[in-house]
Design brief:
The complex is a heterodimer of chains A (114) and B (117).
Chain A: E1 5-7, E2 10-13, E3 19-24, E4 31-38, E5 42-50, E6 53-57, E7 64-68, E8 74-78, E9 87-94, E10 104-105, E11 109-113
Chain B: E1 3-5, E2 10-14, E3 19-21, E4 24-26, E5 32-39, E6 46-52, E7 60-61, E8 64-69, E9 74-79, E10 88-96, E11 106-107, E12 111-116
Parallel strand pairs in B: 2-12
Antiparallel strand pairs in B: 1-4, 3-9, 5-6, 5-10, 7-8, 8-9, 10-11, 10-12
The chains are: A mainly beta (114), B mainly beta (117).
Amino acid sequence: KAGVTQTPRYLIKTRGQQVTLSCSPISGHRSVSWYQQTPGQGLQFLFEYFSETQRNKGNFPGRFSGRQFSNSRSEMNVSTLELGDSALYLCASSFQGAANEKLFFGSGTQLSVL
Amino acid sequence: AQTVTQSQPEMSVQEAETVTLSCTYDTSENNYYLFWYKQPPSRQMILVIRQEAYKQQNATENRFSVNFQKAAKSFSLKISDSQLGDTAMYFCAFTDHSGGGADGLTFGKGTHLIIQP
């Protein structure tokens, strides 16, 4: 069974641009979560999608948005990029997104904003 | 808001030794879940072990075990017979059972564990 796939692995953008990151969950998993990882703030929860609906959102500005498609693949979009958005963005999937479920993570997308 | 604290930024031990990573958390909830995730240089987070707060028995997974002290809000990870492949960042994480859907994990800042040959 293929794992969680995130594309691209690396991305370089300039301030003010927008970016879209992609995540393909494990087959059969319907919940996809996104996390931002930075040296200063550590790992922070962005949002979670289940059956194409956002069920929960972390404390991030509206510039961060996402969506989920009928095949459970998810995309995350960041508009008007700022230098502080430079981070590793991790996607995780699970079967139902229940609190006690094991999350399966991808290898992340490293975003650099210049 | 829940917080997770890992007080050891970095630890180094010899191969085959036993090492304990500490984690404390703060919550007003009674029902919650605790996890240890490992992040090797490949960046992919991998679940090491998980504990449900209502279970008094400490979780064990092969060489990995936890010491869960609910009253003290402490959740330490013990790695026995450490191996070179255990070298990684280790993150303690928490989530509660409030409402439906995934509320997201709250992570500690991590402990960089180095296993020396």
